[in-house]
Amino acid sequence: MGDSRDATAPVRDPLDDDDGGESHLRPAVRDAVRRGEQLRALLELLHTPVQLTSLLIDGIYRTTAWVVAVMLPPMAIFFPLFTLLEDAGYLPRAAYLLDKPLRKSGGCGKQALTMCMGLGCNACGVVGCRIIDSPRERLTAMLTNVFMPCNGRFPLLIMMAAFLIRGGSPLASAAQAGILALSIVCGAGVSLLVSRILHRAVLRGESSAFLLELPPYRMPQFGRTLLRTFLDRTVFVLGRAAAVAAPAGLVLWLMAHIQADGMPLLSFCAAHLDPVAAVFGMDGMILLAFLLAFPANELVLPVILMGYLAQTSLTEPGTLGSVQDILLAHGWTPVTALCVMAFSVMHFPCSTTFLTIRRESGSRKQALLSLVIPTVAGLTVCFLIRAISRML
Hints:
The protein is mainly α. The protein is built from 16 helices and 2 strands.
C-alpha cells in the first residue's frame, strides 16, 4: 500500500478550472484561497519576511479557512432543518417511537435524537445527550455518538464512494449514493452494537423510565428558529473548529518545511508508518493524515493529497478524476478505499468532540475511552477487510 512511486497524475492549480470538468474544489474553499492571496499581497506590501508570510497564509490561514469553508455549507443546511423539525413537534414523537428498539441496545429513545444531531456535528450530539436522564445511558450515548459520521467526514466518504463506483451516469450516481447511505447505516449499527456491549460489560446502573412530554404539532417560527440555530449551534461549532484548526495549520506547515533525511518531515513520518498502516489495508500517509486531522476531520483528504504531491500547503485538484488519478498512482485499490471508508466512520473523535466529552462527562478516563473504543473498532474492521481480501 505504501507505494511511493514518482509516477503521479498531472496536477492543476486548485484555482484553475478551465477544462470544464466536475470541480471538486468547493466554491467556499476557492473564495477562501483567493482571499488568502489578497492577504499575502498585503503582507508583502508591508515587507513581511517571506517565511513568516508563508507560515501565516499557507499554514495557519489556509488550514483554518479550509476547515470553516468545508464545514459551513452543510451545517447551514442541516442544523436549521433539524431545529425546524424539533420546533414542529416531530422529533419528540420520533424519540418515543424508537425507544423500544433502542432499549434492546442499552439506550433509550432520546439517544436517537443525539445520533441524528451527530450527523451534523458530533460535538453537538454529545451536548445534546443532556436530555437523557440516566447517567449510564447518557454516557453510553456520548461514547458512541462518534460512530455517526459528521459533515466533516462526508467529503472523504463521497470521494471513496466515487473511487469505488466510477462514472457520471445516473446508475453510477445512484450506486455512489447507495454506498454513502450504507456507510451511515453501518455507523448507526456499530453505534448500537457498541452501546449494547457497554451496557452489558462495562457500564453499570439502572435504566431510566422514559418520560417525555409530547408537544402538539405546530408551525415553527422560522425567523427565530433560524437565528437561534445560527447562534447556538453553527457559530458555536465553527468557533471551536477554527480555534483548533489554526494550531493544526502551524503543525502542517512545519512538517512540510522541516527536512529529515533529505525529505519533508511529513513524508519521513509517513514512510515510517507504512509497515503499521499496511496491516490495516492503508499506507503511512493515510494513517498520518488521520492523526494530523485530529483537530478537524475535514483535513484528512487534503492532507493525503498534500503528502502525495509533496506540496507545502493544503491543495486539492479541480476534478474528481484528478483525485482518483493521484490515488491510483500511489497504489490505491478498492480494498484501500474500503479500509479508508471504514476507518473514517470508526475512528477517534475530533478534538472538539473529545474536549466536549471531557467537559460533559467530567472524567478524563471516560474521555480517553471515547478515543480508544472507536479507534479499536475501526482498526479491527480494516484488518478484517484486508484479511478477507487477501484470502479471496
